[in-house]
Design a protein that fits this description.
This protein is of the alpha/beta class. It is built from 11 helices and 9 strands. The chain has a single domain, classed as Vaccinia Virus protein VP39 (Rossmann fold). Helix 5 links the parallel strand 2 and strand 3. It is globular, with a radius of gyration of 18 Å.
Length: about 300
């Protein structure tokens, strides 16, 4: 099944259907696949997700193992803030954000997969959170009024959206003047092999829909954001048994030793405005492996 010739709406349907299926699975199953979207990897390790379990507000029931970073850790959320999570899934980032905002703040999760919204709402009810709300909607057209949010977070979602520039425009619209975002996402350096770039499973798996790192940062700057800061970077290595579904042994060897790099980044930027001071900077973290090196458990890049 290939993404070639697919329209933006067809791509969205691919993602929506896959993540509806994932919503019925647990984190242990999802961690064995490429961003939770492919078949099980025989190597049985998570190639993108960072460990949330030590963060305050973490909810095991809401953790489906689908992220590629810890944006809430870097988001500089203050008590009383209104926070929006784009592609909120089962609600884990929302619940971590809620810990930071406190009971006096508000958290809004947006997702376009109804089973995910339903699961997140049940999780919020179990936790007794009256200030965490989940809205069904497309992040290219957010169901949120202008200048609503102090902070926006998102975890491994924008790579799934066909029109990334439109999403950044929407982020700009719904942020208050002086508000900011912290987003974890997948970007590329170099070109993916054709078989990966044009496969629907790899699109839903957070890889084929990724764009060049320079283009990603360029979209942010062109939208009008300031104080753009790379907060974290780590390499992503796709296990050979997943690559083997698309590439020959020779192509796998070439891909693993070539110039193409897949990276998870966490990026911060602020909407210009005088209503809020620029939040205090957090320490920037960069975890960059040498070309061809592997990610191993405990190395910080898996």
């Amino acid at each position: 099944m290939h993404t070639q010739e697919k329209t933006p709406e067809e791509l969205k349907d691919t993602v929506r259907n896959k993540y509806a299926q994932i919503s019925e699975q647990g984190a242990d199953y999802n961690a064995r696949s490429c961003c939770g979207a492919g078949g099980e990897s025989k190597k049985v390790y998570n190639i993108m997700t960072d460990d949330y379990s030590e963060l305050e507000g973490y909810s095991k029931d809401a953790d489906l193992g689908l992220g590629c970073g810890l944006p809430t850790q870097f988001a500089r959320i203050s008590k009383g803030d209104t926070v929006i999570d784009l592609g909120s899934g089962a609600g884990n980032d929302c619940f971590v954000a809620r810990h930071e905002t406190g009971a006096e703040g508000k958290v809004i999760g947006i997702d376009f997969t109804e089973p995910m919204i339903n699961r997140a709402r049940l999780n919020a009810e179990k936790l007794g959170f009256n200030n965490v709300e989940f809205r069904f909607g497309d992040i290219e057209e957010m169901p949120v009024s202008d200048s609503t949010a102090d902070v926006i977070v998102s975890n491994c979602v924008l790579n799934l959206v066909p029109n990334k520039q439109k999403v950044f425009s929407e982020i700009f619209r719904v942020l208050k003047p002086g508000g900011h975002f912290s987003i974890s996402d997948i970007v590329l350096e170099g070109e993916l092999p054709h078989a990966l770039k044009n496969d629907a499973e790899m699109y839903a798996g957070c890889v084929a829909g990724a764009i060049q790192n320079d283009d990603y940062i360029g979209h942010i700057q062109e939208t009008g954001f300031v104080e753009v800061e790379l907060q974290k970077q780590k390499p992503i290595q796709i296990p050979d048994d997943i690559l083997g579904q698309y590439l020959s042994d020779e192509e796998i060897a070439e891909f693993n030793t070539g110039k193409t790099g897949i990276y998870s980044i966490t990026v911060f930027a602020q909407k210009p405005g005088e209503t809020q001071p620029i939040p205090e900077k957090t320490e920037t973290i960069s975890v960059i492996a040498e070309s061809g090196s592997s990610c191993c458990t405990g190395s910080g890049c898996c």
